[in-house]
Amino acid sequence: MTVLKTSLRSFFSHKGRMALSGLAIVLSVAFVSGTLVFSDTLNKTFDEFFTDLSPDVTVGAAGGDEAQDTGRARTMPGSLVDEVRAVEGVESAEGLVLDQNVTVVDREGEAVGPTSGAPTIAADWGPSMQDSMDLVSGHAPQGAGEVLIDQDTAERQDVSLGDALDIVAVPGTYHVKVSGITKLHSTNPGAMYVLLAPEVAATELLGEQDAITSVYVTAADGVSDEELKQRVAAAIGDDYEVDSRADNRQDMNEDVGGFLDVIRYAMLGFAGIAVLVGIFLIVNTFSMLVAQRTREIGLMRAIGSSRRQVNRSVLIEALLLGLIGSAVGVGAGIGLAVGLMQLMNSAGINMDTSQLTVSATTPVAGLTVGVLATVLAAWLPARRAARISPMAALREAGTQGMARAGRVRGALGLLLLGGGGAALVAAASAGEAAEGSSFLGIGLLLTLVGAIVVGPLLAGIVVRVVSAALLRAFGPIGRMAGRNARRNPRRTGATAGALMIGLALVGSLSVVGSSVVASAERELDDSVGADFIIDTSQQLITPEAAAAVHATPGLEHVTDYSIVKVELTAGGESSEQEVTAADPTYAQDMRARTVEGELADAYRPDHLSVGESFAEDHGLQVGDEVTARFAGGDTATLTLAAITSEDTLIDHGAMYMSRETARAHLPAESMPLNMVMFATAEDGHEAEAYAALQEALQPYPQFEVSDQADYKQQFKDEIGQLLNIVYALLALAIIVAVLGVVNTLTLSVVERTREIGLMRAIGLSRRQLRRMIRLESVVIALFGALLGLGLGMAWGTAAQRVLASEGFNVLEIPWPTIGAVFAGSAAVGLAAALLPAFRAGRMNVLGAIATD
């Protein structure tokens, strides 16, 4: 009980000094808790959405994954509904027409649809849709010229009753007006719904008059979903897929689960980085508090306190700090989750705060992370406090023996750095990405730990160099700032180490991102011969749009490019493959390198090319024959005409055949649509052809025309956006690191109160004192930046060499970014010193001198 009272008294007497450490815990736990609440809420939103849309049993056409991607929905005869309706245990059965390969365009030629990448769903306004949503304004569609749209899209895209729209589908483009607005019973995560009159939906969306895409079946009372599924499957045979509500929910969750898991684990990863940085801050805080309380602890030991009691006293303070900080962090995490939901809403993914989900595991996880991190971080300072002897403390000699410990630590750190460096070299030298990735992970871990361990040893050397280079101009004030930063290398190393982690990740990611962009630009320059690329990120190119491209004047040639699903058998082994089916002009548009044969020969009838890995695995050479079974078509014997190099970024490992070969072995209705198209202008008419292509595709805003410069810029922008998101998440760790600098300087000012008073007494002005503390902060920040950026560039270089096996061959060091981050670190150092410098400047000189 005495130890507890002592710990409580000490904790609350130093609560100001604990505040910044507590804030680091709050931020770290808030990120963990916020991530859990946000992902649980997102899961609940999708789960309720899927549940509301799924009937008891669904009947669909078979062979979805094995069929060629024609852009058309798989269909069934409408008469199937009556067959299903007659099955015992069926209360109702309704046919549904639904197509997701559509685009809605307003009369200004602008696409109307989701901004989040969610699908646009066109369906019939029949009983199945009416069970899932209500008509909230207007009237149901009557005939071919009217549609309903969902309320979320209408509000987001400013669509009103009576507005004219175009529906661009595979069968053609249809002109309609909005007759009504609907609202789903559950929260719509972001999809757009366009609902047509049932009597015309099949013709307009599927191109068939009496066709449906699925049958929604409701079970009679007393009949389970699984039982009804078995009855329906037995009645209609094996030509259809029959799924229960549970099956549909599992499939939908698998489709969305990967996306949700990426968000969840990525955010938890960044939260872990913030927790790691926070541990540095807490270790520093308690180490300094223990050092400042040396006399107090010595007195406690002199009057009978045991080492265990001293140790327990420090750990109890850490426990209190962890509990309070974690509790506040859990509450802040819920607020963070609400903020993330609002951010997702602005991005087009709808989330309702009324569905906010705080499971019991969230506060438990938050408290566990916060408390464990704090107690573990305080364990070393607590042990150090317990080893203080009463007489050594009373003589203020509690730092003896640190030199030897520093040498042992330095040797261990250099050993870890050497081992990590060797692993990074092995990663860079590995021939395959999988092998290189293993060495890369080991190298990252060892070099990070090694840099942390050796930090105090480097502090004396690097800080001295930085001080000599940057602080010389500030005269005696600069020299004192440098000496203060070198005074306690362990403290300086730990403070800079927290900043080092965040900046190492920033540096490595900037190197990887720049290298990826540079590799792509070189690949485009070396390989792409086409002047223009017609591309889409969401849909296959509809026949109408493809015809518009072919009819564009001023083009020397146009190349169609689609993917055909084929089962290839070679060397006695069969495997499912996706083969590029393109026109022979693709050999000009994409100058793919070969290790054997000529790529142009692969476009001859019943010929193909394969990648070198496939050829090696199956013992193939040019001239060998391969058996190909076309999904939805017949089986053919194809001759291997070329083996392509895989030392490429574009079409890495791709297989090629002509579209004529694909057409010869596939029914017309199974021929896939274009994924992308290429075009080359007539000599001297590039600008005119570019403008003509853009005009030809104006009615189809889902497809984008790019020349090579545009394509490079798009790729660069995509990488830049991804890096900006990562940098924003890393900012949390850097903020925590900045708090560490602030806390270190604040406690250092308290520790040096008497010294500061003496310097003020002999003539140091307040302005000079504040400048000295700011310069000390800048030196610490730049030390952390040098370590972090140096480590990051080593990581990024090794990662680029690993990616080189996948075609990313160019190493690009973004020196402007590295320089900006280094300069920004100095600014961070200045900002972190504002509060400690202000506090130091306000000290009463006589009071400071009298401090014991």
UniProtKB/TrEMBL annotation:
GO molecular function, one term: transmembrane transporter activity
Protein name, UniProt field: FtsX-like permease family protein
InterPro entries in the cross-refs: ABC3_permease_C, MacB_PCD, Macrolide_Exporter_MacB
Transmembrane segments: 265-291, 314-344, 364-382, 411-430, 442-471, 492-512, 725-750, 775-795, 815-835
Family indicated by similarity: Belongs to the ABC-4 integral membrane protein family.
Limits of the ABC3 transporter permease C-terminal domain: 270-390, 728-844
UniProt key word Transmembrane helix: yes
Subcellular location: Cell membrane
Key word Membrane present: yes
One of the record's GO cellular component terms: plasma membrane
Domain of life: Bacteria
Keywords: Cell membrane, Membrane, Transmembrane, Transmembrane helix
Domain MacB-like periplasmic core: 19-234, 492-693
Organism: Streptomyces hoynatensis
Membrane association type: Multi-pass membrane protein
